Amino acid sequence: MSSQKILVVEDEKDVALLISMRLKREGYAVTVSGDGQDALELANRESFDLIILDWMLPGITGLDVLKRLDRKTPVLMVTARSEPADIVLGLEMGADDYLTKPFEVSVLIARVRALMRRRQNKENKAAENRIRNGQLIIDTERHEVFCGDQQVDLTPSEFRLLTALMQNAGRVLSRNRLMEHVQGDVNVTDRTIDTHVFGLRKKLGICQDTIETIRGVGYRVRG
After folding, report:
1. Domain 5-127, CATH number (from 3.40.190.10, 3.30.300.350, 3.40.50.2300, 2.60.40.10)
2. Is the pTM of this model over 0.70?
3. Residue pair 164/157 in contact by the 8 Å Cβ criterion
4. How would you class 124 by CB atoms within 10 Å of its CB: exposed for 0-12, middle for 13-18, buried for 19 or more?
5. Kind of pairing, strands 130-133 and 97-100?
6. Where in the chain is the domain with CATH 3.40.50.2300?
C-alpha cells in the first residue's frame, strides 16, 4: 500500500468526502482541509507528496494559497473555474495540473497517479546527481556541496577535485590523476593539488576527515 500523503483542500464537504474516500481506496494517506489558511498551516507543518486544491475557498482563495505554497510540492487544482483564462492563470501561478468540475473520479485518480510518477522521476533523477559519503553530499548538477545541513562554498577547482575523490571513494588517486581533474587552471602542479586539498579540508569543517592523505601517493575519500 502506498504511503504517499495527499492534502485535499476543498470546502464542499460532499466533494471532499468523495475525493478522500477514493484516494484512500487507492492507498494514499489523506488529510482534508476546508479552509485556505488552515491548508497553508498544514502544508508548512507537515510534508505532503501532492496537494489537491480548490480555487474558491473561504478566507483566502486557492490562488492565494498557491502563491504562498512551497513550490516543491506538486499541486493539482480541482475547481469549477473552467474558463480558459482561469486555467491559464492557475497553471501560470504554479499549479502542475488543472481539472475542472464536474469531473470523473477516474480521471482525477489518473491525474494524481501521473503527478506522483512525475514527482518520483524527478526525485530519482536528483538522487542520481547526488554523491553522499557520511555527512558530506555533492550535487553534481547544481554544483552544490553540503556538510550535514550546512552548504559549503567551493571554487570550481575545489569542486572538481572533491567530485573526483567522491566518485572514486575508497580508491587512492595520485596527485597526477587529480591534476587531470583540475583542468582549466594554469600551471597545475603537485603543490597546487596539495593547496586545494588543504583549502578543501578547511572549508569542509567537521567533514574534513572524509579526505585522507596517503603519504607518498595521493589522496582518498573513505569508502
Report:
1. 3.40.50.2300
2. no
3. no
4. exposed
5. unpaired
6. 5-127
> Above 90 in pLDDT, residue 53?
yes
Q: Please report which confidence band the pLDDT of residue 1 belongs to, taking 50, 70 and 90 as the band edges.
A: very low
- 15-19, 84-88, 118-122, 124-128, range with the lowest pLDDT: 124-128
As annotated, the residues of the chain forming the CATH 1.10.10.10 domain(s) are 134-221
At 167, is the secondary structure helix, strand, or coil? helix
pLDDT over 80 (residue 190): no
Range 134-221: architecture per CATH: Orthogonal Bundle (1.10)
Q: What one-character DSSP code corresponds to residue 141?
A: T
Whether 150 and 208 have beta carbons less than 8 Å apart is answered as: no
Dig out the grid coordinates for 187 from the structure.
Answer: 600551471
Residue type (1 letter), 23? L
pLDDT tens string 19-51 = 999 999 999 999 999 999 999 999 989 999 999
φ and ψ at residue 204, rounded to 5 degrees: -75, -15
For residue 19, the number of C-alpha atoms closer than 13 Å in the C-beta half-sphere is: 33
